[in-house]
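Figure 6 in text form: structure in, sequence out.
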């Protein structure tokens, strides 16, 4: 089994060095998450396997494979294996890296790089990197202090960073200071796609998306951050948006859905929903974040 000994937080699924297994989880002590009502609880990948959990690899949509854990564990996100020239990008991460998952991912061409949207999904990223040849793990520099000890991260800075041809990280600053998405230029049959995790989250009514600082504690994202995020995304051509969980996908009209959702969000905060400063899709944004 390709399992590591480091403790996993049962609430968020982030893995830490062995010494952390007796202390609190920094991610869950932050106001964006929470410590379980019964208190801090730890487990290991080996224990999860013994409990019957296993990796799951299947197509999210044709040409885009997802990787999850079943039954669901912790936050329950699934990762995405985003193909293109130079190899696959593993977008976000999941906790359980078992033999079958490793074999299935190798069948799909392996992993050339890993990129993570925000600290809640760091999970067992160090184990994934080692398993596939010590591939780089990209996190935005604004979140570098959240990287667990022992994870060899490759911090990137600025507004965007193309990590492999056609796969570009885009900094939005939603949810976390370094909250980022992945633009996939060849996605949706060449019309472009955004892999968003829950930086821009696909809600159960999949005609819409949401923007939150904290999901479990229901703290809304700052409206200025939402306005800037929509403006930055409007520089990119995308028809689909893939959220953090199986089936949470907006297909075919994702860019209009993001703009309409931002207007609805601002309206329900009692603010002017005008997004006049958002340029047409594909146009440059003056004063983009640096």
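Output sequence:
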């Amino acid at each position: 089994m390709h399992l590591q000994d480091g403790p996993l937080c049962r609430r968020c699924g982030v893995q830490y060095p062995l010494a952390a297994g007796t202390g609190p989880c920094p991610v869950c002590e932050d106001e964006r998450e929470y410590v379980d009502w019964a208190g801090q609880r730890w487990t290991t990948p080996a224990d999860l396997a013994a409990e019957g959990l296993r990796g799951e690899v299947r197509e999210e949509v044709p040409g885009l494979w997802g990787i999850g854990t079943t039954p669901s564990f912790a936050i329950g996100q699934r990762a995405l294996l985003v193909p293109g020239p130079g190899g696959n990008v593993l977008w976000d991460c999941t906790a359980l890296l078992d033999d079958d998952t490793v074999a299935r991912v190798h069948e799909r061409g392996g992993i050339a790089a890993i990129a993570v949207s925000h600290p809640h999904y760091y999970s067992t990223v160090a184990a994934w990197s080692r398993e596939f040849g010590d591939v780089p793990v990209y996190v935005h520099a604004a979140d570098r202090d959240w990287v667990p000890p022992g994870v060899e991260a490759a911090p990137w800075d600025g507004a965007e960073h193309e990590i492999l041809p056609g796969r570009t990280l885009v900094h939005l600053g939603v949810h976390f200071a370094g909250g980022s998405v992945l633009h996939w230029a060849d996605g949706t049959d060449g019309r472009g796609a955004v892999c968003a995790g829950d930086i821009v989250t696909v809600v159960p009514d999949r005609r819409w998306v949401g923007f939150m600082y904290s999901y479990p504690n229901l703290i809304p994202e700052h409206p200025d951050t939402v306005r800037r995020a929509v403006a930055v995304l409007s520089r990119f051509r995308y028809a689909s948006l893939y959220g953090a969980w199986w089936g949470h996908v907006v297909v075919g009209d994702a860019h209009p859905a993001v703009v309409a959702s931002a207007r609805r969000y601002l309206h329900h905060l009692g603010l002017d929903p005008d997004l006049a400063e958002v340029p047409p899709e594909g146009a440059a944004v003056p004063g983009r974040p640096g």
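Caption detail: The chain has seven helices and 19 strands.
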